[in-house]
Amino acid sequence: MSKYDPLWNWIKENGTDNFKLTFAEIEQIAGIPIDHSFLNYKKELLKYGYKVGKISLKEQTVAFEKL
Length: 67
Prior knowledge:
three-stranded antiparallel β-sheet
């Protein structure tokens, strides 16, 4: 089980094609703060039918795209 499973499940259930979440929203959904390990874990999202798009450190957002 991945530490980001709650986030991946939320994204899958959300069903929106393309959207952004703030770092704070991700922390609230996943129950953990986003950190550099997110870059390694983001590949797991592919099996849920989504991919991680642009990660903006300036805006503190992550874009998600449905495959």
